[in-house]
Amino acid sequence: MRSELISANHAAAHAATLAARANRKGRGFCSGVYPITPSTECMELLCAQEIEKGQVVRVEGEHSAMAVCIGSVAGGARSFTATSSNGLAYMAENVVAAALLRLPMVMMVANRTLGPPWNIWADHGDSLLLRDSGWLQFYCADNQEVLDTILFAYRLGEDARVMLPVMVCQDGFVLSHTMAQTLIPAQEQVDRFLPPLSVSHRLADQPHALGSVILPQQTEVLRRRHHQAMGEALNIYPELQREFAEIFGRELPGPLVGYRDEDAELLILSMGTLAGTVERSVDRLRERGVKVGSLRIRLLRPFPARLLREKLARARRVAVLDRDISPGFGGVLWGECRTCAGAETLVQNYMLGLGGGDVRPEHIEQLVDDLRGRESAGEPMIMEVGV
Amino acid sequence: MNEPALNGMAQTEHDRKKPLLRPGNTNCGGCGMSIALQMLSRAIAGQPVQLVVPACCGAVAVGNYPFSSFGAPVVMSTFACSAAVAGGLARVAALNGEETRVICWAGDGGTYDIGMGALSAAAERNEDILYICYDNEIYGNTGGQRSSATPLGAATTSTPTGKPEVKKEILAIMAAHRIPYAASVSLAHPEDTLCKLRLALEMRGFRFLHILSPCPTGWKSEPSHGIQLIRLAVRSGLFPVLEIRDGRQMTINVEPDFSDLALAEYLAMQGRFRKSGVTAMVLRDAIRRHWETLRSAPTGD
Predict the structure, then answer these.
(1) Contact B30, B230 (CB under 8 A)
(2) Residue A112 to residues A87, A119, A257, A262, A323: CA-CA distances in angstroms?
(3) How far is A283 from chain B (nearest CA, A)?
(4) Distance from A17 to chain B by nearest Cα, in Å?
């Protein structure tokens, strides 16, 4: 284990490299990559690594990047890619294919606003576009978490009970280009945590059709199994969390991360780095005597509904912060979370930081004032945070 | 096995023990892909292979889960990216020291049109794969729409009065990538077919084979006339049978006699040219010009 001052893009590349090397006793590593801001430095660093029994393929577009990953995992190798924004949208067809073919792999998404018009700054609209793609989705809040979650994602997705690909999202620039002291585990630790990948349905020598034509009844069965595998991921999460802590000597956060939420009457729900700002605001508001707490949704798929219901049971008022918008509906996270609150709970949606607008503690305090002053929940609100 | 190259002669030592295209598949009668797959089966013989099939009639031919009409491991890729998926498989096989040959089996839609980007890029990277395009000049399994492989004058369900544009020159495009091997394959010349398939399987790097594949359903032709149609297309010069090494050295494998009669017969035997009324006279000039270009290329002789 060593500590380095690195960006989250580089943290992701280190994690991918360690996971890649850990499969040298398995069928190796092969990854398709293509540059797009702000994820690019991740693929650049990966391309600079020497990987025993591993290759990185520099392809002509994101669709093919994911196609190379699909071919690699179909051949039994471990795989990884990284992308952002329109790159992810362009890749979408194969993103779905990887999940439907039940091919475990990890993709780092440095979240960026979809365009045109072109905007390179962070919001969650890109990965939320693929919320229903059948991938697990993590949203990270700091560089260490990006590195740790990628390692964890391999272990979780490759588990025979899950067998699904995992997206590890981090806010573009806010994390992707921000340097922070990050612990990089030793290869030997990663080797212990990540046993060689075994894909039982991989292509070998015998006749075997992967992804052939199926009928409605078979589709129903496959979708049910896919859904169940998502549930399994939640079930085995604590067990793998314990193992992570034993091997790496630090805790990996759970699907939901609470902050001063135990006695909170007001809860603020958010994803990614927004939660960091929320937590600082919680401290300031607590000093003013406001019983407020923060809940960060770290794992969006599978959705930790039971955990969230327990957490929301005590809250009287809930603000759901969305760094995304589903035009004609409201915030995507709000749509997910509001069903988990009790009938008595007031749940209000605030969409803010769209297109990477800088959300500051005063914005959080503003919306908390709004929340406290409400008699009932209103329409989802867009808060403009300005430049 | 039923060996079309040898008029149904019994199994020889070169044959694959299990056919690549198994009995009971759902291909239309007279489908050129069926013939081509049987030839490929013979060429593969005992070698381990993995196939990548994008959306095309070939993907339908594989059949319904849990059965498979293909006697080899096969992964269905999305439409546009069989060459990229195959690249991944081939690299993993190589990393593991395996002799597996990875083959893309794609139609003209997945090659000429939607798959062109991934195909071009895989060729540029010289991925160690054999890419075979069975070209029925139509989007077959969606009901016969035009592709950029559809020839001038052919009626399709999206060009009901005949396609106004000429067919894309795929072999020249692939050769321009300077890949080790690019060849067109005539199913009417089984020795040529087998020879090229075997050579392409053996070689390393990106190899591209273009097979003109009769489609009785789309061509509105008799199922039993497929091979005869290909022979006429070759004789008339409409379908040049050649190979190009490293994008430079070209060899003409079958010399046409440029018979106008053969060309007229080729058109008359198919219902798809009727509406547009395209004639041998119309095509003759274009064929002549095309062959002049071909002859002026450096040869591999």
Answers:
(1) no
(2) 10, 8, 23, 33, 11
(3) 50
(4) 16
Residues sharing a CB contact under 8 Å with residue A274, sequence separation 6 or more, in sequence order:
A321, A323, A353, A359
Query: Any alpha helices (H) in B78-225, and if so which ranges?
Result: 82-95, 116-124, 170-175, 190-202, 216-219
CA B95 to chain centre: 29
Interface check B86 vs A, CB under 8 A:
yes
Residues of B in contact with A61 (CB under 8 A): 117-118, 121
Of B63, B75, B125, nearest to A211 by CB-CB distance is: B75
Give yes or no: residues A242 and A264 share one domain. Answer: no
A-B contacts at Cβ under 8 angstroms: 157
Q: In what order do the strands lie in the sheet with A80-83?
A: A80-83, A106-111, A166-171, A136-139, A299-301
Instruction: For an interface test with B, give the residue of A21, A62, A64 to mutate (most B CBs within 10 A).
Output: A64
Angle between helices A143-158 and A216-248 (to 10 degrees): 130
The verdict on residue A205 lying in a domain is: no
Residue B269, chain A, CB below 8 Å: the answer is no
Are B87 and A68 in contact (CB < 8 Å)? yes
What is the distance between the alpha carbons of residues A8 and A12, in angstroms, rounded to a whole number? 6
Q: Would you state the pLDDT for residue B18? A: 83
Q: Are residues A217 and A279 in the same domain?
A: no
- Distant-in-sequence, close-in-space partners of B292: CB < 8 Å, separation ≥ 6: none
Nearest CA in chain A to B99: A205
Report d(CA B87, CA A228) in Å as an integer.
32
Tokens at A347, concatenated? 């749940």
Predicted TM-score of the model (pTM): 0.96
CATH code where residue A339 lies: 3.40.50.920
Q: What is the pLDDT of residues A142-201, one digit of tens each?
A: 999 999 999 999 999 999 999 999 999 999 999 999 999 999 999 999 999 999 999 999
DSSP B188: T
Give A283-325 pLDDT, tens digit per residue.
999 999 999 999 999 999 999 999 999 999 989 999 999 999 9
Q: Does B95 contact A209 at a Cβ distance shorter than 8 Å?
A: no
Q: What residue numbers bound the domain in which A286 lies?
A: 257-383
Q: What is the pLDDT of residues A99-133, one digit of tens each?
A: 999 999 999 999 999 999 999 999 999 999 999 99
| B105 touches A at CB < 8 Å | no
* ipTM computed for the complex: 0.96
- Tell me: the pLDDT tens digits for B81-124? 999 999 999 999 999 999 999 999 999 999 999 999 999 999 99
**Cβ <8 Å between A64 and B59:** no
Angle between helices A216-248 and A85-100 (to 10 degrees): 110
Contact B78 A93 (CB under 8 A): yes
User: Which residues touch A267 (CB under 8 Å, ≥6 apart)?
Assistant: A261, A292, A293, A294, A295, A311, A312, A315, A317, A318, A319
Q: Which two tokens stand for residue B256?
A: 């046409």
Q: Which residue of A has its CA nearest to B48?
A: A205
CA distance A155 to A244: 10
Domain boundary among A248, A275, A308: A248
Q: In this structure, is residue A288 part of a structural domain?
A: yes
- List Cα–Cα distances, B186 to B33, B65, B134, in angstroms: 12, 32, 11
| Residue whose C-alpha is closest to residue A192's, from A238, A147, A248, A253 | A248
Q: Are A209 and B96 inside 8 Å of each other by CB?
A: no
* Residue A49 distance to chain B (closest CA, Å): 16
Residue B227 has a CB neighbour count (10 Å cut-off) of 18
Rounded Cα gap, residues A338 and A348, in angstroms = 9
Which domains does chain B possess?
4-296 (3.40.50.970)
A61, A68, A101 member nearest B117 (Cβ): A61
